[in-house]
Amino acid sequence: MTDVYLPPSLDDDQTEVYRSIPASLVIKVEPVGRWFEARFKRQHHRTSGSFRDSGQDGGDDSESMSEEEDNIEDEDDSHLQGLDPSEWKSQDHYAVLGLGKLRYKATDDEVKKAYKRKVLKHHPDKKKARGEQVGEDEHKFFTCITRAYEILGVVTKRRAFDSVDPLFNDDVPEVDDDAKENFYEVFTEVFDRNERWSRKKPVPKLGFENSTWDEVDNFYEFWYDFDSWREFSYLDEEEKEKGESREERKWIEKQNKIARQKRKKEEVIRIRALVDNAHACDPRIKKFREEEKKRKADEKKAKQEAIKALALEKEREKLAAEEAARLAKQKEEDEAKAKALAAKKEKEAQKKAKKKVKKLLRDTCKSHDYYAENEEQKIKHMQEVEMLCEQLSLTRLSALNEQLQKSSEEAAKVVFQNEIKSVNEEIEKEKQEELRKQRDAQAAKEGGGSGGVGGRGKEWNDSDTKLLIKAVNLFPAGTVQRYEVIANYINSHSTSGITRNAKDVINKTKTLQRLDTSMKEEVNKKAFDKFEQSKHKPKKEDVSAPSERFANGEEKPWTADEQKRLEQALKTFPAQTPERWDKIAEAVPNRTKKECMKRYKDLVTMIKAKKAAQEQVAKSKKP
Amino acid sequence: MAASIGIHVGGTTACLALEKDGKIDVIANDLGDRTTPAVVAFSENEKVVGLAAKQGQFRNAANTISGATNLLGKSYSDLIVEAERKESQVTIAEQDSCPVYQVEWKNKEMTVSPEEVISMILLKLKETAEHQGGCTVKEVVLTLPVDATTDFEKSLRSAAEEAGFDVLRCISEHAAGALAYDLGQTSPKQTSHVLIFKLGGRSLSVSVLHIQGGVYQTLATQVHTNVNGNLITNQLVKVTAEDFKRQWKADLTENKRAVAKLRNACENCKHILSRLNSSHLSVDSLYDGIDFDNNISRAKFEAVANSTLQQCAGYAEEVVKTCQLDPKDICQVVLMGGSASIPKLQQLLKDRFPTANILNSIPPEEVAAIGAAKEASIILSCHDEGISLNEEDVNMPALSQDIIVKVCDESGTEQVFTVIQRGAYLPVKRHQTFRISSEAQSVSVLISASSPTDGAQPLGKVVLRNLEEADIENGHISTTFHFKRDGSLDVTCTADGSGKQETLMIEGS
Hints:
The complex is a heterodimer of chains A (623) and B (509).
Chain A (H helix, E strand, L loop, with lengths): L15 E2 L7 E4 L5 H15 L44 H4 L11 H15 L1 H7 L5 H17 L2 H9 L13 H5 L1 H12 L18 H12 L21 H36 L1 H85 L7 H17 L2 H13 L2 H41 L12 H13 L7 H12 L8 H13 L2 H28 L3 H6 L6 H13 L7 H8 L5 H29 L2
Chain B lengths: L2 E7 L3 E8 L2 E4 L8 E3 L1 E4 L4 E3 L1 H5 L8 E3 L12 H9 L3 E5 L2 E8 L2 E5 L1 H20 L3 E8 L5 H13 L3 E7 H8 L10 E9 L4 E9 L2 E10 L4 H20 L7 H18 L4 E10 L2 E8 H25 L7 E7 L6 H10 L4 E3 L4 H19 L12 E4 L3 E7 L5 E7 L7 E8 L7 E9 L3 E10 L4 H6 L1 E8 L5 E7 L4 E7 L3
Parallel strand pairs in B: 1-11, 11-12, 13-18, 18-19
Antiparallel strand pairs in B: 1-2, 2-3, 2-4, 5-6, 5-7, 8-9, 9-10, 13-14, 14-15, 16-17, 21-22, 21-24, 23-26, 24-25, 26-27, 27-28
Helix pairs in contact in B: 3-4, 5-10, 6-7, 6-8, 8-9
C-alpha cells in the first residue's frame, strides 16, 4: 500500500480516453536469463494456442493456463462428494480428479494438474479461507482426492488401476452371422479398445476390405503374439502390508500371486478368443484362402501340364535319335561291305598278278636253267628262286622279270645273283634288327630293375660304394629293417651329401651282387690300392721316424685273434679296475696300451653309430 | 537426469561448465586444469588437443593450430584472415573462398578447416565432461564473441553438431558473463547498468548492459584487438629476454624456438603473478644450452604491463561514455577472460568505477562457460520441446514513455506517480493500490504518458463515482494496469469495499 491518495474527481469528469498511447519501442535484447525465457515461452505458446483470449495475458504473474486444460471438465462434482475414502478400491479415481473423459489417455502432466486444481478447490484450508463451510464430507472427499492422486500419480499404481478400469469393456464378439456380415464395424472398435494394453507400439490396425495379405497377416500375427501389460494387482484381496508377521505377509503375497496369475490367464484367453473370433469371421481371410487355393490349383495344373509336355518332347527326341542311329549304322555297314568287297577283289587281283609274275619268274629261271653252272648250284638257285618268290613284292618281282627277260643270258645271271644277294642282305639286316630290339628290351628291363641309380642323379661314388659294402657287412641279413638302417648309416657317414633311402640301397646292393664281378673286383682293387697306399706310407715313416704320434694315425690292423683277446681283456677287467688299460695291454700281446684304448674307442663309436642309425629308423617308423 | 552444459571456446582457451542437479561446476580436463588451451597439433601420427599441443608448439610450430575461432565463419578475403595469415606459423590456404589450414599429418599434406579444429576441441571437452560428469552430455549452450557474425554462429553450431552436441542456443559471451553472476535474475524489478569487461588472449571487448526486468539489453560494445593478453605476455617475454641478454650476453630473440619456450614460461609466470606476489621463471636449456632462472615480482610485472592495462581501463571508460552514462551509473563490473584476473587491472577498474561492485568471485576465464551452463539449464527447464529462436524473439516491444498517474500526498499537493517505467517490456501488468481520503465521494485516475523530452501527455481518465461507506472504510482503491503486447493499455479500478468497478481501454497507436 502506498501513501498516495487519488485526487477527487471533478463533477464533469468522466471515464474517457484522451489519446492513444505512443508507439512502443522495439528493443533488441540478449536471449539469456530466466525472465527472457519465461517471456519467450509465453510468446511461443501464444502463437501456437491462438484461440486463447489475449486478455488473459498476464504481465509478470505466472501463466499456467493452456489449451490442455480444456480437457479437464469442470463438471459438477457434487455426486462425488459423498464418497467414502475407506472404499477407495471401488472408486473411479479418474472421476474423482475430474478426468472421467480422458481416463487412461491423460498424460502424467494432466493428472498432476488436475490434482492440483482439485486440491486448490477442495482443500479444507482453502475452503475455509474462502469462507465456505467445511463439513465432514469435505474432509472425506479431500481424502479421496489425495488417494486418487496417490494411485494415478505413480506409474505402477496407475497401470494397476488402468488394468481394471471399471469402464473398460471386456466383451468379445461371438462368431455369428452378424459379426460376419458387419465384420469391420464389430471388430474394429473392439480391437481399438484393446490395443491400449499392448506393450508394443504401434499396434497394427484391423484394416479394411482391400488390405493386402501382408497387412492382414501382420495384424493377426501381432494379435496372436499379443504382449499385454495388463495386470491385476489392484484386485488383490488383501494387502501385503496388513500382514502382521513375515510368514503371514508371505502367505498373502502367495495368495495374491495366484489370483493375479489366474486373472492374467483369463485375460490371455480373452484376447486369444477375440483374435480367434475375428480370424474366423474375417471375410478377408476367407478371400485370401480361396485365392490361395485357386492359385495353388492353378500352379499344380500348370506344373502337371509342363511335365506332360516335357515327357512328350522327350519321347519324340528319343525316337528321332534312334532313327538317326539306325540310318548311320546301316550306311556304315554298307560302306564296310563295299570296302571289303573291293579289298577282296583287289587282293585277289594282286594274288593273281603275283601268281602270274611268280610263274613268269619260275618259267624264266627254268628256261635259263636257273642260271646255274652245275646241278648243285641249280638246286640252290631253285631254292633261292622260291625264296625270291616268297620274299619280294609284286612290283619288285615284275621288275626283276622284266630285267631278266630284257637282258642277255650273262647279264640276267648277274642281275639274278645280285637280286638274291640283296634279298639275303635284307633278310640278314632284318634279323639283326630283330636281335638288337630284343637286346634293347632286355637292357631296358635291367635298367628299370636297377632303379634310379643313374636316373635320380644319385651316383654312387667309390667312397659311398665302399660305405655300402661296409654297412652291408656291418648289418648282416636279419637285422630289423636292414636296408633302412643301412641307408641311414650311409647318410650319416657319407661325404657326398646325397641322401639315400632304403630303396636306393637295395637297388645298389642288388646291382653290386648281380653285376659282373669286374666292378666288385675294381672296387676291391681300388680298396686294396688305397689300403696298400695307406699301408705303405706309415711303414716307410715308421722306419724313418718311429714316433708314437704318427703311429696313432695309421696303426697296424687288428687281427681276429688280437680282437678276441682284447674283448676278453675288456670283460675280465671291468671299468672300475685300477690301472685297467695297463692290464688290458698286457693281456693283448703286440699291442700297446694306447693302441688298445684307441681300438676300444673306435669300437665304441662304431657300435654307437650302429645303434643310433637303428634307433633313428625305428623312430621314423612309428612316430 | 541429463546434465546441461555450457562451453566457451575462445581464441586461446576453451572451458566447459556442467550443470547437474542445480549445481554448476567447471569440469577440469584430464590434466586437472579447468581450462583447456584451444590448440590442436598434428604430430607425426596423432592429433593432439589441449595443453600437450600447446607445449609442443615450439617443436612443431608449422602443424600446431591455435586461434581457430579467429577464422571461423570468415571468408578468405577478410582482413582478419589476412592478418592471421601473416602472423600464424601454420600455412593458411584458400579453399572455396574459405580459409583452411594446411598441415602435415602422417607425412601427408592435408587441409583442416577452422570448423574441424573447433570440432576437435569440442569433442575433447565432451569426452572429459562425460568422463567426469558420469553422464552423457548432449545439450549445450555455446558462447559467441560479441562481434560474431551469423556465419560464425552457423559454423560454430555445425562444429558442435559434428562433435556430437545438441546446440540449444548460442549466446553472447557478455550476456553469459552477466548471467553467471545472476545479475537481475533474482529481483526482476530492478534496473541497472552493468559493465562487462573481457580481456582475453586475443582481444579486449567491453560492453554495457542494461538490465531491466531480468532481461539484458546491450547498450554499447567495443572490441579492441590491439590490447590483449598475449600482448602482455609478449611484453614480459621481451623484458625477460633482455634480462637474459644482460646475464649471459646472448641474444635469444633470433631463435624462434627459444622465444617460444620463454613465451610458455612467461605465460605461466603471468598466471602465477595474478595470484602471488612473485613468481619463479625457469627454463631448462633455453638458448645455447643455458638454463635460465629468474625471479619476477608482481611489481615488475605490473610495471611492464602498466601501459597496456591503463589502455584497457581507458577503453572501459570510453564505452560507458558512448552510452551517455556516468561511471557512477555502473553498478557492477563483470570481469571475464584470463587476463582480467590481473590484480592491477582490477584495481584500475575499481579506480575508474568507484561505485561499482567489481565481480571477480568466479575465475574470469570460467565466467562465460558457467553463464552458458546456467542458460542451458534454464532452457532445459523451461522448454520441453525443441525451440528455435527467431530474430523477432530477441526484439521485444517495450514502453517508449513512462506511464504516470496524478496523485496527491497527504497535504493535498499534487504529485506524479510513475506506474510503469519507460523501457518496460510488453506485455506488462501492474497492480497498484491507492488510498482515498475519507471525505471523497468520487475519485479520478488521470493517466498520462511522460517522456523527458515532451513532458506529460494525458492519455485518459478513470472516474469512480458514488463511493459507498464501505469503500471509505476500506480506504483504498486497487487499480490494475495491463499493457498488452499490441500496445494497448487496460486500466481497471476497483473499489474494494463495494466492489464497484470502472474500466478503461486506451488503444495503442
